[in-house]
Amino acid sequence: MIRSPPQWSDPRYTMIRNKTLLITLATCSLVAAGETRGADAIINAADFATLQEAADAIPRSGGVLKIPPGTYELSQPLHLKTADTRLEGSGTATHLINKNTEGKPAILIEHPDWIGKQVPSKDRLWRVNLANFRVTGNEKSGAGIEARYIEEIFVQGVTSSDNGGDGLRLHYCYEDPRVSDCLFTYNKKCGVSIEGCHDIIVSANQFEENDDGLRCIDSFNLTMSGNNLDDHLGDGVVIENTYGSVVAGNMIEECQGWAIVLDRDCYGITMSANVIAHEFTGGIDLRDAHGCAISANTFTIVKKVGVAVREGSGSITISANNFSDSWIGDADDGTPIKKRDSVVSKTETNPNEAAGILLQDCQALVISGNLFSGLSGDAVRQLGDCRKVLINGNGSQEFEVD
């Protein structure tokens, strides 16, 4: 049986009209509330006289600030002060140059009501994202990027170089900061400085010739993996007063200081599967560390000390690591090959110097399953009163060149 369609006066149409009216009113109220429509939240910096004017145009509910290719000189910090905001460039073609000589950063991310305050309220800005641009400074400028009390900050694909301060400074960005696929080079302080943060990801970045590569202080749960650190004037990675962290799968080479330093009550940290190569002072220095594991790392031509366990440290496991010089074996025809790096230079009287483990007034250690090959000194050297040390199942190999 074919039913005839209901008339407009039918009660069923009345119900449909009412629902449609409610949906329409709800949609209109969202738009009228302001700052939620996509077109309003996308800001093109080219439409404004200055970058700061463009940043100020971001609605309170957040948005995207797009900076087209070009060179932009800053005499004062570009201040981002809205949550749910993305600052997006066009790769390194978008170049922000910090001309400030009073120690101020090129970019400052901070709540507008908290400027200069040390301990702001708990109502912080959330979810700020920086991506795809280049920022540089000068010897008297501050950090390339400084973020203060920003939760869930995400920095990706950014180049920060030649700044008088840090390449990136995260100050009490407590909840889930992430830094990935960035380049930090030639900064007078750290490539990345982290203070008072929690559940931190630092992954797939490159660090070149900063003072220190990365410093993580007064924090929790750092995951640092897949990074490349080279030629630092100080140390590669410095971790202080931090626990429950992992430093794994990184390449750390030619630091003038140490590859990794743990200090000020660090505990529960694993350092594993890193290649630590050609460090001029040493590999890993446990100055004040407890309950930590050093495993499956390669220490090649590391000068003076491969791993140091100091007086303030204990409950340490050092296992399955390789400590070696640059011996590369025999040629296919059986002719012995000299070590790869044997030419004396002004900076290295012994290019093939390779060191083992130093224990200094420490306690409660297990050293097992390591291989020591071609070292300049002892595999394990003990100074002072070292107690409760188990050394077992390690191997050594020496090669001679005819």
TrEMBL record:
Q: Matching Gene3D superfamilies, A to Z?
A: Single-stranded right-handed beta-helix, Pectin lyase-like
Is Electron transport there in the keyword field?
no
Gene Ontology process terms (BP):
ubiquitin-dependent protein catabolic process
Q: Where is the Right handed beta helix domain?
A: 179-323
Give a GO molecular function annotation for the protein: lyase activity
| Recorded superkingdom | Bacteria
Query: Which keywords does the record carry?
Result: Lyase, Repeat
Keyword Ribosomal protein listed:
no
Which ranges does the record mark as transmembrane?
none
Spell out the protein name for this chain: Pectate lyase superfamily protein
- Origin species: Stieleria maiorica
